[in-house]
Structures are given as C-alpha cells and as structure tokens.
Specification:
- The chain is an alpha/beta fold.
- It has a domain at 70-323: Aspartate Aminotransferase, domain 2 (3-Layer(aba) Sandwich), CATH 3.40.640.10.
- The protein has 12 helices and 14 strands.
- A hairpin with a 2-residue loop joins strand 1 and strand 2.
- Helix 3 (91-103) packs parallel to helix 9, helix 5 runs parallel beside helix 6 and helix 9 (311-352) packs across helix 12.
- It starts with a helix and ends with a helix.
- It binds pyridoxal-5'-phosphate.
- Its cofactor is pyridoxal 5'-phosphate.
- Belongs to the class-III pyridoxal-phosphate-dependent aminotransferase family.
- It holds the Pfam family Aminotran_3.
- One of its GO terms (molecular function) is transaminase activity.
Length: 448
Amino acid sequence: MKAYTTSKRLFERSGAALAGGVSSSLRAAMRPVPLFAASGRGAVVTDADGNRYIDYLLAYGPLILGHAHPELTERIHAAMTNGYTFGLQHEGEIELAARLTEALPCAEQVAFSGSGTEAVMLALRIARSHTGRTKIVRFHGHYHGWSDAIFTAFPSADMKGGAASDAGGKTMPGTGGQSELALQDVILLPWNDAVALEETLRARGHEVAAVITEPVMCNSGCIRPRDGYLERMRELTRELGIVLIFDEVITGFRFGLGGAHERFGIAPDLMTMGKALAGGIALSAVAGSRELMRVVSSGKVSHLGTLNGNCVATAAAIATLDILGRNGGEAFVRMEATAARLAQGLRERIAANGFRGVVNQEGPVFHMMFIDRDAVEDFAAFSERDGALYSDFAERMLEEGVLVRTNGLWYVSTEHTEAHAEATLQAADRALARLAAERRTEGGERRG
Ligand SMILES: Cc1ncc(COP(=O)(O)O)c(C=O)c1O
C-alpha cells in the first residue's frame, strides 16, 4: 500500500487558510486525498510522500511537453531574466500572433488572455458585438469555463452539487452564487444531433449570436462529432449569419498545431485556445477572421487583462510551438500512436477482467468509462456510465503508480514512451483485477 500521509497532513493544513484546501474545485474530488505534488520530470510526477506516478492528468491538459521540459524551461528562464511583464507591448506578442495565424487555418488575427474561461468570454463578446444579437447556443456536456455567462449545470462525477440542467426548458446555473439571469441568453441543446440544431436555428437563428462547441466533446466522453455534423453546423451558421466558435481549449495544439478544425477541415469563425498553448504557463487566445476581430481592433469590444500577453507566457508558447512543430510535427503522430495503444490495451483489459466499458480516443486524448454499452456517441449515453466505479479504478491506479483524472479523461504528452504505455497497461490490469476481486467479495458478503 502506498502511503499518502504527507498529502493527508498537508491537505488538513491547507484548509486553514486556503478555502476548501484546493485552488480549483475539481481537485477536491481526488481520492483518497487531493495529492500534493513535489516535482515532475517528463511523464512522471512525484508527490509529497515520494510516490512516483506516470502522469496522464498532465495538470488537466496543459503539459503537452510533460513536466519541466528542458528546452521549454530554459526558454522560460531566459524570458524571465529579461523581465516578466511590462504592461507595454513587446516583440514576443507580435511573433506569437504571427506564428499562430500561420498555424491555425481559421486565424487572421488573435487576442491573448490568461485562461480558457477568459478566451471564451471574449469570443462570446465578439460574436454578440459583431452580430448585434444576444443568444448563445451551447451543448449539454460541453465545458466552456466557469464564467457566469456560460457555466451551466450538467451532471459530472467531478462537479459537486449543481442543479439538473435545462429543468423545465430553463438553463440552470452551474454553481451557487451564479445569477440565473446570466444564463437567460443561453440555449442548451443536445450535441451530435443535427436535427435539434437545425430546428432551433431555423426557429430562433435571428436572435442567435453564436453557436459554441467543443469540436470533439472531450469534457464528456471524448465523443467524436458524427459524420457530417460539424459540416452541417458550419453550413447552418453561415447561412443564418451566426458566428461559429470552436472551443479548442483542449484540442488546440493537441490535435496538431492547427487544432481540431484543421484535422476536420472545417474553419470556424472564431476559436479559443488555452491549456497546451504555452505548455503549462497561463496563456489563452481567441483567433479568427480579421472581419470579426475588427470589433476588438476598433475598441468596440473591451479586451482587458493586466497580464495578457506577458513575456513569459508568449516565450513559453513560441517554444512550445517550435518544439511541437519539429520534424514535420512527428510528435503529434507519436502521441496519437501512444494514445491509440493505451486505448486499445485498456479496452482489452477491461473485458479480460470481466467489466463492460468504452474507451473513446481521438488524437492524444481519450476517455475511459465503465458502461454497459458497445459505444458512447452522445451525452445521454455518456450519462449512463458508472462514475463511482471509475473513481475506484482511478484510486487503484494511484496505488499502481499511475495518475489519472477521476472523471476518466486521459491526456498523453510528448514524453510518454512505449515503455510508459506498457507499464501503464500492466498497472491497469492489476488495478482491474483488484477491483473485480473486491466486487466478488462484496457480492459474496451481501449474499452471505
Ligand atoms: C473546452 C474548454 N473550454 C474552456 C475551458 C476553461 O479553461 P480554463 O480552465 O483555463 O479557464 C476548459 C477547461 O477545462 C475547457 O476544457
């Protein structure tokens, strides 16, 4: 058994002055205790008790180059020694903006912020200002940050509390303290349902400023868009003068430098990026056509933020872009192959240990779930998964030296090797066997 004594002690201590003992509500869901990190190198993180884990949490996504990547660290350090932030313009912003417009098919201009939440806030504002309309269409199971304007309730093992969404046709707040009025402009629809989308847009399109979607529903099941779905979304929004926003906070710099929209060959009007953009340093971006970004350039839309585009963040993003782009982007091919191998290996081991489950993989990210189905293609199906069982599995995986998110989403970095994947699959086999044995014992005790 691994000891988590130091993490437990630190967690008890942290609650004294740090509200809830964590800095982001999701982290409190971790069992047996929210772990305290001591250090990370490559694909491996070490906790405060000295336990080492192959890391697929990757800080909830940003660590595309793994922990403390030597070149990234060196370039961040070089930027820091020159001054971190000036509140003045600097050349790094120009270079990064230009590099992003080269890499992202949908981008003629970009604007920088600090977090994915802020990037989404700006994108919505641009869409409303550009169209003169107010409503935003978003989808069940997608996550677009926690701002009042867009954070709706949806059931998730990670989220504490939260009302049932869309109760009685009304979009419900995702958190206490959120104004119900904030969501009166949000229309919540099922995703991967072209008919529901078309019906709503035909009826209400004249009041809709934007449709915002994750191009792959990474936050709930890593679900692919059905064939033709995003294309139909693109056609309808274009026809009805609605701004199409791809929220690529997860998929940006992860599905290739051009993100998911390059992978699928569909250009949104606007996209948001965050997480992997600067390899673990806080930076986000909105990118889009010059025509749309004009409301920012003209000052019609306020885009504010003290630390926006700071030198450390832009240097980190340029370095991340350089590293990921080397040798024709072979890092993406490698990451995807590792993810595919892990996903297939997990499918086999789930079945071999007598469980029913689905692993949905797209690029270097996948979602593993226990569910009595052969496929999970929409949020309704995803909601049937056994989240408690997965959470037990995640806890057993910690014991086996593998760190995974408690909701089932796994990220792969450039630093995960075949050897890591093999060790992970062996660990999963042991964790699943233990779970199966525990279930048999529990079943036996209940019958006895
Ligand atoms: C698709 C998507 N959009 C936006 C966000 C919000 O990003 P941040 O946590 O940086 O505010 C997230 C975070 O997980 C996300 O997955």
